[in-house]
Task: inverse folding
């Protein structure tokens, strides 16, 4: 009897400690958006679970990556944990310019985007990963429609990336074909990999693809800001984009009202930080080992208490 | 009839030889603009230069900004008005969600406390089976119960109930709203004239084009998804109501008048009940279209099965995606068959409805209480879940490894020899020539009004600077419609001749129409790579259904006396088909092709997801950049193409039917 009472008391006090009544924070749920890729689901749930531990009311809302800005501006949605420099910059800038959306800084993850090929292509084109090898073995990458040029599968046109310009500037005998969506892009990779067929395409990380499939990034001349703006920079003196792609941060953004409505959540989100490698390991557990996202997140929370407690100031 | 008479008059003063000469002239110019070097055709004919354009996109964007931020009715702003609508809908939706999915909650978010759990899965399966038994006997009971059992066994229960909750609100809203607008259109000719073009636009402008404004006005979340669903699913109900009321037999109306009904009684007690069988066709359409919206609804916060499909496919988990997609299909089929059976049954017997309702309620309460005691009754046990997901992934892999080269060879041959030349030809056509040809065709088919309409729509596209993209769209849709017709019409003929074959065929096309195209888009990409060919396959699969359905209907519904006459005259079955059935069914087959064109156009935005470069992609880019004006203008251009095709084909079909003296019944 006594034991059960002490247990009850200690449980209660744990709650009291874990969830100090925060006078300043609203009791309304703070809405975090979930998109359709694993890394983002993990990032968002890590943040959400940490905020819950702080005693905040959290709600996860499925929303489209780009359509969500409409909701973030009006305050129907509150936090988006992954806006990629590379694919979301334009929408994010448009939103922050209105003053209704706030950029809460980097997540700590760096988006890598580059031309990528599966490891078995190295046999057919031994000069890889050096980009100059692509000039000789373009035909290895060709299809009926592009012959004799190689076929490079780029991301959706909305992702930007300047691949058409890059091919031109570096004089690569390649034709750029744009996939319409992320899913289509990796469906082609999966298909080629199953057949050990030639492919070279846009891949990015953190993502399950470079973990699941063995392969390498092409090594282009290293990116510098001048390469994109100044034609005289680099190998081709007449054209810009004669280099690889920049690596960019992944940003956190929120509705601008979050600061006043949930001040401690605001600080917690600002402090959120995780590295590419940590995220890669978590993505592997979900997409390769087939564990549920919630379970993987709970495990990480258990093993990394000091880390997430630091985010929420405990 | 009037159009046909007018046409006959005209064809007397317009000699056949002149007509042929004009068309040859158009064809020659078309070939010339394709074959001649690009420099010979002035650039302004290919694409209207920026300084001539309408600038409609900026105007629309500014208007939207004003509407969302500044528009006011004095006491409250426009946005406050729309927000209160969504608050009201939110109450309904929360109630439905509480029953099916979340249970009754106090508070919201992670601190919410569940006061009462939702309906147990056993109860839902049981209710559906019982309803099926009552409306349609044991077969329907098995179908409805089995469909919901599938959802539980394949682990789709939670998502499916979220989807069901929103459908449970969207369908009644669409049906009631549709009937009300239909009555308005029937009663007030002016309202009808205003509504007709609005309905056309609601059905043809892609949803992606107006998603952003809806989100601003109604808030991001399930309610906006609900509103988008209703906008998309309601138009057929409005149209069906108008025609149904018009076609109520005069005898019934006269009988009503004789017994001294008021106008209201006449409408609600006489005409609507008499129109019931036709209204049901509309209800069926609302259910099907609402379930078509599940994927897009999930992108704006509705969650449910759509979200499940998207997430699975993003991971390339084809099997999971297919299972979730099939869950949408079984939901659609179960709801559709139940509603149809309900309606046809109510016409004949009323029966002991009260006793049935009490028994059903008692059953639900008992199961609910049992669910509180035994968790397995409330929530389907995870250990009993099945999944065929890995098998599907392996199946696609096997096909990929063994047949890719063959498929690739076929694809390359078609692409290089057929698709690409046609595309080049279409893109080379100038807006000047196409507008002239359309105006001429419109004039020949339907007279001056049709001519002006189609020409104006073509110019609308040109003067928004989207001509080339529109021509790519026309090429993609055109070739898909040809392929779909080439497959669908023969299948429809077989289905029209054999009832047994038709039952199989109907199940297949129902599935194709309700299965989210995303589910088969990804395997198709794996086998055919991204590009026009993949887009074409996706469009054909989706747009096949009406070609099959209308053809079968046309073949079957030729007046029996004509068939008898043919048999008496000693026709072989083949002669009966080719000399009697097919010619008489042609107007209806044409209407089927018309519907195929409409569905194909509605797939354009989806095909942008596999990398086409047309109006669909323009809409998609605008969505990703939150550019309201650009998206709506591109969406209106899709609608313009749809309306041009629709009016020309409809007029042609009417003329043909009039020429035959109406010897087939319309579906």
Result:
């Amino acid at each position: 009897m006594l034991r059960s009472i002490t247990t009850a008391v200690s449980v209660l006090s744990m709650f009291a400690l874990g969830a100090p009544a925060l006078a300043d924070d609203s009791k309304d749920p703070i809405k975090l958006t979930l998109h359709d890729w694993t890394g983002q689901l993990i990032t968002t749930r890590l943040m959400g679970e940490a905020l819950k531990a702080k005693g905040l009311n959290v709600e996860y809302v499925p929303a489209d990556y780009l359509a969500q800005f409409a909701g973030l501006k009006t305050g129907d949605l509150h936090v988006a944990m992954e806006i990629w420099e590379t694919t979301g910059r334009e929408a994010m800038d448009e939103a922050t310019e209105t003053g209704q959306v706030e950029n809460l800084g980097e997540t700590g993850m760096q988006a890598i985007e580059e031309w990528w090929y599966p490891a078995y292509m190295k046999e057919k084109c031994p000069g890889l990963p050096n980009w100059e090898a692509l000039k000789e073995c373009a035909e290895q990458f060709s299809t009926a429609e592009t012959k004799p040029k190689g076929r490079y599968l780029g991301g959706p046109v909305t992702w930007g990336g300047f691949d058409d310009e890059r091919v031109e500037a570096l004089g690569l005998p390649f034709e750029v074909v744009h996939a319409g969506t992320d899913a289509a892009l990796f469906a082609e990779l999966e298909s080629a990999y199953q057949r050990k067929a030639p492919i070279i395409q846009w891949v990015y990380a953190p993502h399950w693809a470079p973990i699941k499939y063995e392969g390498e990034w092409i090594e282009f001349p290293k990116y510098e800001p001048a390469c994109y703006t100044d034609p005289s920079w680099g190998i081709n003196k007449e054209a810009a984009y004669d280099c690889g792609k920049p690596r960019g941060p992944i940003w956190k953004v929120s509705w601008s009202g979050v600061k006043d409505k949930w001040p401690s959540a605001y600080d917690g989100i600002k402090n959120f930080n995780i590295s590419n490698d940590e995220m890669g390991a978590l993505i592997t557990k979900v997409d390769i080992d087939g564990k549920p996202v919630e379970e993987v997140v709970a495990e990480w929370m258990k093993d990394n208490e000091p880390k997430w407690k630091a985010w929420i100031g405990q | 009839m009037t159009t046909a008479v007018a046409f006959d008059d005209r064809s007397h003063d317009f000699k056949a030889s002149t007509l042929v000469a004009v068309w040859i002239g158009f064809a020659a110019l078309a070939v010339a603009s394709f074959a001649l070097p690009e420099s010979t055709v002035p650039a302004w004919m290919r694409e209207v230069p920026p300084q001539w354009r309408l600038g409609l996109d900026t105007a629309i964007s500014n208007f939207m900004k004003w509407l969302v931020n500044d528009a006011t009715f004095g006491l409250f702003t426009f946005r406050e008005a729309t927000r209160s609508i969504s608050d009201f809908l939110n109450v309904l939706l929360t109630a439905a969600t509480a029953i099916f999915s979340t249970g009754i909650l106090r508070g919201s978010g992670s601190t919410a406390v569940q006061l009462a759990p939702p309906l147990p899965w056993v109860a839902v399966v049981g209710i559906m089976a019982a309803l099926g038994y009552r409306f349609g006997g044991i077969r329907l009971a098995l179908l409805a119960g089995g469909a919901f059992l599938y959802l539980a066994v394949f682990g789709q229960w939670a998502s499916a109930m979220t989807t069901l909750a929103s459908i449970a609100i969207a369908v009644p809203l669409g049906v009631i709203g549709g009937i009300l607008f239909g009555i308005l259109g029937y009663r007030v000719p002016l309202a009808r004239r205003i509504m007709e073009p609005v309905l056309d636009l609601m059905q043809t402008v892609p949803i992606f084009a107006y998603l952003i404004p809806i989100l601003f006005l109604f808030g991001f979340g399930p309610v906006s998804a609900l509103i988008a669903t209703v906008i998309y699913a309601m138009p057929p109900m409005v149209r069906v109501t108008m025609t149904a009321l018009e076609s109520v037999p005069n005898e019934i109306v006269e009988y009503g008048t004789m017994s001294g009904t008021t106008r209201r009684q006449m409408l609600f007690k006489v005409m609507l009940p008499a129109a019931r069988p036709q209204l049901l066709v509309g209800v069926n359409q609302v259910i099907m279209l609402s379930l078509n919206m599940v994927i897009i609804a999930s992108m704006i916060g509705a969650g449910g099965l759509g979200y499940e499909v998207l997430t699975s496919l993003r991971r390339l988990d084809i099997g999971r995606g297919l299972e979730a997609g099939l869950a949408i299909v079984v939901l659609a089929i179960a709801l559709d068959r139940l509603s149809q059976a309900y309606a046809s049954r109510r016409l004949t017997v009323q029966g002991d409805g009260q006793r049935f309702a009490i028994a059903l309620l008692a059953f639900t309460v008992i199961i609910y209480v049992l669910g509180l005691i035994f968790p397995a009754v409330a929530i389907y046990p995870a250990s009993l879940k099945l999944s065929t997901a890995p098998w599907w992934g392996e199946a696609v892999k096997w096909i990929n490894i063994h047949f890719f080269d063959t498929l690739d060879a076929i694809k390359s041959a078609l692409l290089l020899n057929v698709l690409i030349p046609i595309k080049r030809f279409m893109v080379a056509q100038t807006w000047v020539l196409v507008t002239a040809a359309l105006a001429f065709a419109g004039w020949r088919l339907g007279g001056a009004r049709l001519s002006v309409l189609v020409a104006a729509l073509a110019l609308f596209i040109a003067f928004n600077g989207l001509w080339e993209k529109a021509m790519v769209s026309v090429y993609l849709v055109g070739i898909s419609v040809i392929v779909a017709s080439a497959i669908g019409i023969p299948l429809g003929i077989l289905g029209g001749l054999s009832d047994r074959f038709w039952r199989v065929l109907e199940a297949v096309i129902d599935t194709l129409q309700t299965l989210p195209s995303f589910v088969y888009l990804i395997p198709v990409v794996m086998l055919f790579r991204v590009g026009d060919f993949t887009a074409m396959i996706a469009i054909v699969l989706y747009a096949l259904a009406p070609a099959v359905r209308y053809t079968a209907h046309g073949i079957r519904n030729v007046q029996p006396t004509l068939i008898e006459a043919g048999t008496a005259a000693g026709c072989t079955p083949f002669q009966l088909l080719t000399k009697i059935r097919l010619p008489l069914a042609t107007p209806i087959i044409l209407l089927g092709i018309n519907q195929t064109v409409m569905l194909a156009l509605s797939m354009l935005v989806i095909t942008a997801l596999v990398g086409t470069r047309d109006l669909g992609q323009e809409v998609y880019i605008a969505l990703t950049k939150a550019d309201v004006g650009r998206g709506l203008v591109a969406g209106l251009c899709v609608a313009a193409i749809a309306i041009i095709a629709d009016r020309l084909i409809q007029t042609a079909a009417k003329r043909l039917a009039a020429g035959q003296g109406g010897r087939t019944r319309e579906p």
